[in-house]
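Here is this case:
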Amino acid sequence: MKNRLSIFSDRPALLILAVGLLIRAIASWLIPPGFDEAYYGVYAHHPAWGYFDHPPLVAVTAGFGFWLSGVYTFITLRLGALLLFVFSSLILYESIILLYNQRAARIGLMLLHTIPYFFIGMGAFVIPDNTLGLFWLLFIYSLIRLQRDDNPRWFLLSGTALGLALLSKYHAVFLVMGLGLLLLFNKNWRRYWRSPWLYGGAVLAFLIFLPNILWNASNDWISYVYQFSKGGSAGLHLSLDKFIQGIGVQAGYLLPWYFILLLIAGYRPWRSKQKHTLFLLPFVWLPVLVFTFIGATRTILPHWPMPGYLAAIILLAGWMDTWRPAISHRYLKFSAMFIGVLLMFVLLQTRLGIIDMDRKKDPTLNGFGWSELASHIQEKGYLADQRLFLFTHKWFLSGELDFALQGQREVTVLNRWHPQGFAFWSDMDSLLGRNALFVTSEFFPENAAKSYALYFDEITRLPDFYVQRNGKPGKTFYLWYCKNLKTPFPWPYGNK
């Protein structure tokens, strides 16, 4: 039996966690919420077992800091994400040390803290992958313990982790598929079909996930239909350009050199017949291959395959432990420097706009100016009308507006195709007869308000509101005052 070591007695590992937490906290404090983050912040004000877009745990992540402090700021929105990444790091460390040794576990921590998607995306910003990553790793840890101890009782932890992963993001079905492949085709795992603990774990997973099933059943299965039909239904049309683009964005999220090493590490146990790590391969390749090949038919979002790379990090850490220390240190040191420079550039661009680029293509402007807009709306006295509601024509803009107003007035989205969760949170009957403020920005058509002329008695253009960034062009907001919503807006689902 391997000597059991703890991260709490490993000073270098604790230093990695501490420095990483500090850097992520600074980024969380300085960078305004992106479109998705602000939208998930609205989730926290509408607790439910399901949402149009996702299962419920992202609401817990987004709401944790607010519920704890009663204050809604950039850092409280992201407090849950910051803390969850620490726990994910601990589980990764423990998993690697069980399979390999302490040095490999330290390398794994450094990998997790120098891969942009995991360190910044999963580690600092609010996304469903905050909890998915945690419970994905916990599921893998349970299987490592099961194999190491030859004790099927660990299936109870597997079931718990699976249920919570499903409540995080539906990508967790790949955990079910991966375990199914092991039980069907790996002779060392087929014997567990006879174990009652396997079925006990399955029951636990089902019971944990059941509230989301019931929520969907009472809402026309809307979340499942939406998520599993993403990408369109126009049939399969293979495209080499889309395939290459899908691979390219994965490499960008991971860093190209890590991308190549992670793929090689995911192949090595098969090539070398490393029996103690072969069982990890389904959890690497299922999400990576499925979404990569989907990317040959339609555009995919870069983060879809990312859970598979968590298991690959475990394998890469074990492989890098066999390298000459000078080589592995060089890789990790260069990657740490690169992500430090990258993060510094993002911070400077966000705060100062150091690069003069097409503002419509500058993602750092997505969350820019909304707080100033909220102050402007209040200063102009528009909020004096207690029955006033505000709306935009895009769900992600309504998320930013709602976050900026911090609940001072109801915010919704009037969009006949994609109102997302706002169609469930707002009651159309309660909006009738009320005045509204319509908000959009220069990044969208200036005549967007024309489409609402049939629904209000009168629509009046208000003065534009312009926000500079460091004395340079920033963002212009367009506003319209809409008098008396006289006709229900035709949402495609929700509270019509």
Remarks:
- The chain is about 60% helix and 10% strand.
- The first strand starts at residue 389 and ends at 392.
- The two ends are 62 Å apart (CA to CA).
- Residues 325-352 form the longest helix (28 residues).
